[in-house]
Amino acid sequence: MKCLRLLTLLPLCALLSACLTGQQDPPFTLTLAHMNDTHSQFDPVNAELKGPLFGKQGETDTLYTRLGGYPRLLTMTKAYQAEALAKNQPLLLLHGGDAWQGSGYFKLNEGMANAELLSQFGFDAMALGNHEFDLDNQKLARFIQGVNFPVLAANLDSRDDPDLSQASNLKPFVVYAFDGNQKSPVTDLAHLPADKQLVAVIGLVLEDMANISPNVGKLRFAKEVASAQATVDLLQARGINRIVALTHIGNARDLALAAKVNGLDAIVGGHSHSLLGDFSNVGWGKTGEYAALVTNPDGVGLTCVVQAGSYAQAIGLARVSFDAQGRVIACKGQNQLLASRNFFADPARQQRLDKTRSQQAGKFIDAQPNLVTVDEDPRLRGIIDSHYKPALEQAYGPVIGTLPAPLQNARRPGDNGSDSHGSDVAPLVAEGQYFWANTPQVQALTGGPVDFALLAVGGVRADLPAGELRQGEASLSLLPFKNPLSVLTLSGTEVRALLTETITATLPASAHAGKFPYGGHLRYTFKETEAGKAGHLTRLQWQTAEGQWQDLVNGRRYRVVTNAYSANGNDGWQALARAQRQSAESQSAERVDLAWVAGQLTAFPVLAVAKHGEQLGAVYGPDKALDCKAANVDCGTDAASFVDYVRYARPLVTALDEETVTLLRAGQADAP
Fold this sequence. Notes:
Elements: H1 6-15, E1 28-35, E2 45-51, E3 61-67, H2 70-86, E4 91-95, H3 104-109, H4 112-118, E5 125-127, H5 137-146, E6 151-152, E7 156-157, E8 170-171, E9 173-179, E10 182-185, E11 197-205, H6 209-212, E12 220-221, H7 224-237, E13 243-248, H8 251-260, E14 266-268, E15 292-295, E16 302-306, E17 314-322, E18 328-339, H9 355-366, E19 371-373, H10 378-396, E20 399-403, H11 425-437, H12 440-446, E21 452-456, E22 467-470, H13 471-478, E23 485-491, H14 492-505, E24 517-520, E25 522-530, E26 534-543, E27 549-551, E28 557-563, H15 564-567, H16 574-585, E29 591-597, E30 600-612, E31 615-620, E32 633-634, H17 637-648, E33 661-664
Parallel strand pairs: 1-4, 4-5, 5-6, 6-8, 11-13, 13-14, 14-16, 18-19, 21-28, 25-33
Antiparallel strand pairs: 1-17, 2-3, 7-12, 9-10, 9-11, 15-16, 17-18, 20-22, 21-24, 23-28, 23-29, 25-26, 26-27, 29-30, 29-32, 30-31
Helix pairs in contact: 1-7, 4-5, 11-17, 13-17, 14-16
Keywords: Hydrolase, Nucleotide-binding, Signal
Pfam family, one: 5_nucleotid_C
GO molecular function: 5'-nucleotidase activity; metal ion binding; nucleotide binding; UDP-sugar diphosphatase activity
């Protein structure tokens, strides 16, 4: 079944509306096991857990361990599947999208390593995530056809695309017929199996996908709400009343979807990396409610909304109960972090806990409902170690620095137990951009020094563990997108507008926080005045080359370095596109993008920012256009700037001495 256009669904729903009346099903409980945004994290990631770990109530201890990874996820998945089989319970295993990107494994193997490993899980469906579009549609089609489960997107029209139009495994929805734990896909909606419990899973991709990725080809993306309602109406007209939406649109939009669409019983989400539930018991805070029940527009129906974090650290399990009319009457469950059984006393994870403390730590973990120790699946670990890890180790290359302690990349201040200053990694990346842009070689191309750097945290894809830092980790894992750096001129007013817009957009707990801004040689304080909705900057300063902090002057123009994706105004940074449009109109545009051509660092003057299809992009001169896909072009100046910064200026990699970002939530006292 090819992806259907929205317009083809609507008349069919009208023709079949008579099927809606009088249909009842026996009470039914469906178990949903789910993960999302696993981002090629085949190996476990370093993590810190905080609490009264060693038996002394009132004291907070820190435990260093590792979480997740594909083999550990598979072990937990198998446990859920075995339990459902033993109890004869219906179960769906779902992936909320963005299996791609995130580690060197993806950069070296593109989508096919994920295809092999994910096919070991027994997924019933996967949503199409935005990072699945990071290569090209031919490679995406190869991945979709290479997995043994359907990939879903009901609001995607692929008919004009030469690659995805041929991908038979890409579908708008799937329907499963359950007899207890046994399930089978329904291939003919005109002949539904009798005496079976029917459940449909529909997929939704970001409706503004064309604004996010330059690689969508001739695909067309329909509105999420209208597509969801049309697909629900179609399924209900056929007599299928239990419907799960598998989405990759972010938790905020999931909650809005539930409030705007009738007939969705559950939404299993992704994209915003929301580890829903209260994890303050291990020092990770609370992002939002797991299994929140949202009332539909008809005032009767309820939709259960879940999401399971990111980077293969956790898995969610929800049980959705239906009455005889197919309406949701209850939804319960939680996310669980999956921990290694190896506990360490030091952030470098060199010193194991002694037996007594290890037992105390294990006892603490056993007492937590949202944290469990899990062994890795040995077969999957063997595939990774034999097929993929040797090439990754070789690609990482030489050591460029050392971290005495791990550095966390919490996207937004307060996430994952972070303080009001947020990421320790993003400010270092921004400082690296500032350092590199001010080297003599770069200044010779750009016309002089820059005043500060701006960075959207979504481009920074990893924490930095304690120990050695190798060159390839920067380009393969930390900054994998090969974004060229841009030097442009902005007024103080334009910088202020950018920060205010991007911070305000990420204030809701459910918001996708990738647009949250950090700076190098720039610091700010933002005070929230209305929880989750509004606030303002109370401090905005830049640091001179002599080390003095000065207030940004609205009317003064500053030279700024950022990456070209942000400079073009993508992913919520539209303020930069507006600024360049105004500069072009006043004939004061000053921007160059930087990349290597045949090994030679080259400047590409940008004349304007304009829409290329649905995405904002740079307009270059006719004789000097930057083509990052050309064989002799390397656009990875973003990662190179960090490598050079560490190698030549900060080989002992620690957090900056002074915090540059402060987000004061409503009701929180002002910083001194």
